């Protein structure tokens, strides 16, 4: 059973390296150069300063052969999905699709796909792309997957035997999984991008910590399925456990790339409008990130 992965960023390379150990795998990337490098050199994983190279995958810069995959993991940023969804809609309906994006703004479009099994997930691994065929695995986390429609039976049979370095959890409620991840991202990513600080500064600096709580007080009530006290503690704990990390949104700003602020905070603001919640501080942070995108050319 061939696993297909769409996306050659950090998480796409990380998943390709691990999942190709037990299954045939094909990674679909944007450029011929990246596809050629992976086909020639494989993918190198750096963990604990040791490089490990695997050549157990093939790469393509076109979508030829996508229909032959037994399951497809979509690992591009949310704002790239618009160009991929029309391609996915033409695939055989029995192929399970797994979407692993930040934010929730894509759910309506994804739910309209004709596929029988559409799954959503979150990734807790820390990783960083070094170049087009190598990735650094900075920290082991859990990949959580649950169905948006259909079930996880076929996917679980394919991905059930991965070891403690790459644990995968299957659940029934996508809301519990994605809402919690959305709150974490909406609280940490925009603030670190605006303040230009690593995650730990949001709890180590008492003034920044007040800003963190201000965002959480606006966002958590949007999702009544989530326990407020537990979520507050969870966000603080993540800031402490990843204190040296620079968030993906901060890295995007520094590199002059477009951020996922619309997929993350933009979704929260829309929910606030629908529910009649006042979200003045979250709106301010959103506008500041959008302004930094303009200044940095993102």
Number of DSSP E strands:
12
Order of helices and strands: EHEHEEEEHEHEEEEHEHHHHHHH
Radius of gyration: 19 Å
CATH superfamily of the largest domain, please? NAD(P)-binding Rossmann-like Domain
In CATH, the topology of the largest domain is named Rossmann fold
Structural class: alpha/beta
Q: What is the averaged pLDDT score?
A: 93
Based on the structure given, which CATH architecture of the largest domain is correct?
3-Layer(aba) Sandwich
Helix coverage percent: 40-55%
**Which term fits the overall shape?**
globular
Strand content: 15-25%
Strand order of the largest sheet: 5-2-1-6-7-8-11-12
Low-confidence stretches: none
Distance between the termini: 39 Å
The major sheet is characterized as:
8 strands, mixed
Output the number of helix runs.
12
CATH C-level label of the largest domain = Alpha Beta
- Please tell me the total number of domains: 2
């Amino acid at each position: 059973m061939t696993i297909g992965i769409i996306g050659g960023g950090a998480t796409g390379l990380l998943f390709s390296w691990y999942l190709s150990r037990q299954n045939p795998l094909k990674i679909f990337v944007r450029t011929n150069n990246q596809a050629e490098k992976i086909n020639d050199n494989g993918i190198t994983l750096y963990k604990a300063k040791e490089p490990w190279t695997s050549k157990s995958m093939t790469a393509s810069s076109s979508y030829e052969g996508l229909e032959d995959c037994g399951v497809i993991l979509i690992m591009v940023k949310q704002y790239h999905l618009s160009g991929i969804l029309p391609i996915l809609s033409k695939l055989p309906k029995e192929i399970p699709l797994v979407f692993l994006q930040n934010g929730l703004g894509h759910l309506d479009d994804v739910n309209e796909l004709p596929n029988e099994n559409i799954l959503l997930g979150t990734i807790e691994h820390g990783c960083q792309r070094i170049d087009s065929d190598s990735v650094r695995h900075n920290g082991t986390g859990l990949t959580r997957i649950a169905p948006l429609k259909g079930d996880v039976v076929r996917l679980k049979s394919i991905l059930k035997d991965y070891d403690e370095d790459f644990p995968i959890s299957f659940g029934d409620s996508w809301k519990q999984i994605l809402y919690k991840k959305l709150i974490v991202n909406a609280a940490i990513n925009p603030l670190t991008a605006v303040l230009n600080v690593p995650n730990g500064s949001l709890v180590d600096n008492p003034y920044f910590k007040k800003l963190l709580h201000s965002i959480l007080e606006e966002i958590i009530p949007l999702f009544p399925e989530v326990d407020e006290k537990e979520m507050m503690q969870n966000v603080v704990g993540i800031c402490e456990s990843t204190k040296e990390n620079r968030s993906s949104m901060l890295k995007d700003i520094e590199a002059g790339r477009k951020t996922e602020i619309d997929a993350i905070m933009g979704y929260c603001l829309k929910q606030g409008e629908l529910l009649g919640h006042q979200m003045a501080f979250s709106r301010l942070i959103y506008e500041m990130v959008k302004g930094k995108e303009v200044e940095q050319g993102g």
